[in-house]
């Protein structure tokens, strides 16, 4: 460095040279600071939608969880009953019967013990115990069979609940009005509902069965103890409270550690995804970023490793604590039990039965605590899902029961305004136009002037905020939104690249991916220029257009556009709307598409159709019957190419269309003349 130059240190503000100059930016550090020891890795991440309720069960009071359980159980029961009433009733009845068998089994065991502990010769005592022993075996076998029935019922029920819920979610979501889907908050909510709500709803039936099994088991044991001696019930509570407290603490620690672990996993997945993702693959290699990314990955992996070990140790400590407290309580309970038996308060056999009941209750209690925490937390996600479904129901497309007649002669747009939800200003401000069958109309204008919005209103995807759109005199608000959408074929700026066969990519616009009209499909691809694309594919029409499939093929952007135009043509709808479909096509392909739409085979059918083109390439649309020039949400000029080229604005300057057209034409002319000059 030149010694006369002052040295610039990290943090000092220096002017960054540039056209505007003078922006003060501190010199960046030579090395990014690592997260300070002890700080949570992932703290810098925004919280993700799927973490909203994570660990919530561990933060809520046990009383609140208990208070909500009856409501949650009723909801799961209702869901199961709706999905498969027979299986739901079967699971409930068999589950109760199985728990009764377990309680009777315990009572029968006491009778076995009574017989064995009675006075007399051993063979005599065994002889007396035999009927009760057979009963115990029979009850155990019956319980086994009943549990088998519960498992069978649950196996039938769970997939049914899953299908019913998923289908309802998808059916409602895919019909929601487009304005709602445009809203980012709604999209987030839908994601959360799909990712978490559905998942937990599917699990709710087996979890509830598990909880019912455990609760009924505990109740059965309590009932048996009460029958043996009323004082045994408080004894059970005495042994269960510390054990339950320890189980709650352990469950809460598990829930919290799971939530922390998810944050760490999320951080490291970012790097895993960057290293493996197909979209970033080329740039990762070209910039030789692999090593840097691997090092970052390793840095986080080490933190996760440490965190993992810490969590393992913590869990072991909590478990030890739980066992110690639980063990002390159980020890005290057994001591009281022993004292009751020794002093004759309780017959020896009843003492043995009580011992068995208390012992089995301990394990069951841990299952109850874990299951109720889990069910409570998952229910929060299910609440979100249900709220989302409610919203979707309210956002279904307009359904008036009245449908548009097939075909249209005139669409009249009168003083239409449109404002996007939460937008500060109107995207359309008083647009009027008349579109007649057989005509080809073009919307031109600067970016953001409202062309695509107008197209979506015409397609019935949005409803005007003000003004009217009438199809042959019928106001669109009076008919089912879907009956308009069915009459419009729309090719959008960024068409969907359907991961389906080439043929299905053409026919899906007409609502089918399995049925095709072969002649119509061939005609559509020939007119759009997609015929050559499909002919070059290894399995031609049957080729899957996605690398995710075996023998799948990926198309270039321009070729995808040709397929999209073919899809629009195949639909053969009353209105064909092409919103800059040729933006990524080469010049020859673009020319061919416009030729096909304006003058080609499709032109024959155009006689009773309305064709609307949106294009920035003005030379392609000069032969259209009507050109509407949009600016700032309004139509500022309209007419044929000839009219507009002769139009002069009020201030004497050339009209907007003439200006845009002359600008584009002169750019080509000057490029061509400089090319000639160079030769
Ligand atoms: N989904 C949306 N939500 C909110 N505002 C939107 C949405 N889509 C478009 N807009 C806004 O509406 C106005 C008109 O947009 P539109 O897409 O209709 O313009 P356009 O003329 O088709 O533009 P382009 O030539 O770039 O395609 C713009 O200000 C745009 O930012």
Automatic annotation (TrEMBL):
Q: Assign the protein's first listed, main location to one coarse class.
A: membrane
* Lipid bilayer topology: Multi-pass membrane protein
What PROSITE patterns does the entry give?
Answer: ABC_TM1F (PS50929), ABC_TRANSPORTER_1 (PS00211), ABC_TRANSPORTER_2 (PS50893)
Q: Which PANTHER family would you find in this protein's record?
A: ATP-BINDING CASSETTE SUB-FAMILY B MEMBER 10, MITOCHONDRIAL (PTHR43394:SF1), ATP-DEPENDENT PERMEASE MDL1, MITOCHONDRIAL (PTHR43394)
Write out the GO MF terms: ATP binding
Query: What organism is the protein native to?
Result: Streptomyces ehimensis
Q: Which domain of life is it from?
A: Bacteria
Compositional bias annotation for Basic and acidic residues: 1-13
* Metal-binding in keyword set: no
Could you tell me where this protein is found in the cell? Cell membrane
Segments of this protein annotated with the region Disordered: 1-21
- SUPFAM superfamilies documented for this protein: ABC transporter transmembrane region (SSF90123), P-loop containing nucleoside triphosphate hydrolases (SSF52540)
Q: Which SMART domains match?
A: AAA
What's the protein here called? ATP-binding cassette domain-containing protein
Any idea where the ABC transporter domain is? Answer: 411-657
Do you know which InterPro entries this protein is assigned to? AAA+_ATPase, ABC1_TM_dom, ABC1_TM_sf, ABC_transporter-like_ATP-bd, ABC_transporter-like_CS, P-loop_NTPase, Type_1_exporter
Ranges of residues in domain ABC transmembrane type-1? 89-377
Q: Which Pfam families match?
A: ABC_tran
Question: Transmembrane region positions?
Answer: 87-109, 129-150, 211-233
What keywords does the record list, in alphabetical order?
A: ATP-binding, Membrane, Nucleotide-binding, Transmembrane, Transmembrane helix
| This protein's record includes keyword ATP-binding | yes
């Amino acid at each position: 460095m030149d010694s006369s130059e002052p040295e610039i240190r990290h943090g000092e503000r220096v002017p960054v040279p540039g056209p505007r100059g003078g922006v003060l930016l501190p010199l960046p550090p030579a090395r990014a600071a690592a997260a300070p020891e002890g700080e949570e890795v992932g703290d810098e991440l925004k919280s993700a939608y799927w973490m909203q309720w994570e660990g919530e069960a561990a933060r809520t009071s046990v009383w609140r969880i208990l208070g909500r359980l009856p409501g949650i159980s009723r909801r799961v029961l209702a869901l199961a009953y709706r999905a498969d009433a027979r299986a739901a009733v079967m699971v409930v009845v068999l589950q109760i019967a199985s728990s009764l068998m377990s309680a009777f089994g315990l009572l029968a065991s006491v009778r076995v013990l009574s017989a064995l502990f009675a006075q007399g010769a051993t063979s005599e005592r065994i002889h007396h115990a035999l009927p009760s022993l057979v009963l115990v075996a029979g009850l155990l076998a019956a319980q086994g069979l009943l549990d088998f029935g519960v498992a069978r019922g649950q196996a039938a029920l769970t997939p049914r609940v899953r299908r019913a819920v998923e289908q309802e979610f998808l059916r409602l979501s895919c019909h929601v009005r487009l304005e709602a889907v445009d809203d980012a908050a709604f999209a987030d909510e839908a994601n959360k509902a799909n990712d978490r709500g559905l998942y937990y709803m599917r699990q709710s039936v087996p979890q509830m069965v598990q909880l019912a099994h455990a609760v009924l088991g505990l109740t059965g044991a309590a009932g048996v103890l009460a029958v043996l001696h009323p004082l045994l019930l408080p004894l059970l509570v005495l042994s269960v409270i510390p054990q339950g407290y320890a189980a709650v603490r352990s469950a809460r620690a598990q829930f919290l550690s799971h939530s922390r672990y998810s944050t760490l996993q999320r951080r490291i997945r970012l790097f895993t995804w960057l290293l493996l993702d197909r979209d970033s693959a080329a740039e990762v290699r070209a910039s030789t970023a692999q090593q840097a990314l691997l090092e970052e990955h390793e840095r986080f992996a080490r933190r996760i490793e440490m965190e993992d070990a810490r969590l393992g140790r913590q869990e072991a400590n909590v478990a030890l604590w739980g066992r110690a407290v639980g063990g002390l309580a159980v020890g005290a309970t057994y001591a009281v039990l022993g004292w009751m038996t020794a002093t004759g308060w309780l017959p020896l056999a009843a003492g043995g039965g009580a011992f068995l009941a208390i012992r089995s209750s301990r394990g069951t209690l841990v299952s109850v605590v874990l299951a109720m925490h889990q069910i409570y937390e998952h229910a929060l996600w299910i609440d979100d899902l249900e709220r989302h479904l409610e919203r979707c129901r309210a956002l279904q497309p307009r359904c008036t029961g009245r449908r548009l007649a097939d075909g249209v002669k005139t669409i009249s747009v009168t003083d239409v305004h449109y404002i996007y939800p939460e937008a500060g200003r109107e995207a359309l401000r008083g647009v009027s136009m008349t579109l007649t069958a057989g005509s080809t109309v073009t919307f031109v204008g600067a970016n953001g002037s409202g062309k695509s919005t107008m197209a979506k209103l015409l397609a019935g995807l949005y409803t005007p905020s003000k003004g009217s759109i009438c199809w042959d005199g019928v106001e669109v608000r009076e008919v089912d939104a879907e009956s308009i959408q069915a009459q419009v074929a729309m090719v959008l700026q960024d068409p969907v690249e359907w991961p389906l066969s080439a043929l299905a990519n053409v026919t899906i616009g007409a609502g089918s991916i399995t049925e095709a009209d072969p002649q119509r499909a061939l005609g559509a691809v020939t007119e759009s220029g997609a015929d050559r694309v499909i002919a070059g594919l290894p399995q031609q029409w049957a080729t899957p257009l996605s690398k995710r499939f075996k023998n799948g093929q990926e198309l270039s952007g321009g070729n995808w556009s040709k397929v999209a135009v073919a899809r629009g043509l195949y639909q053969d709808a009353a209105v064909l709307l092409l919103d800059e479909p040729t933006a990524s096509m080469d010049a020859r392909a673009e020319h061919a598409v416009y030729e096909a739409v304006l003058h080609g085979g499709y032109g024959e059918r155009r006689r009773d159709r309305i064709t609307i083109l949106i294009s920035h390439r003005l030379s392609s649309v000069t032969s259209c019957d009507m050109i509407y020039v949009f600016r700032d949400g309004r139509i500022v000029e309209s007419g044929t190419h000839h009219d507009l080229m002769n139009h002069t604005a009020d201030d004497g300057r050339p009209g907007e269309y003439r200006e845009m057209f002359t600008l584009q034409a002169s750019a080509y002319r000057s490029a061509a003349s400089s090319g000639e000059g160079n030769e």
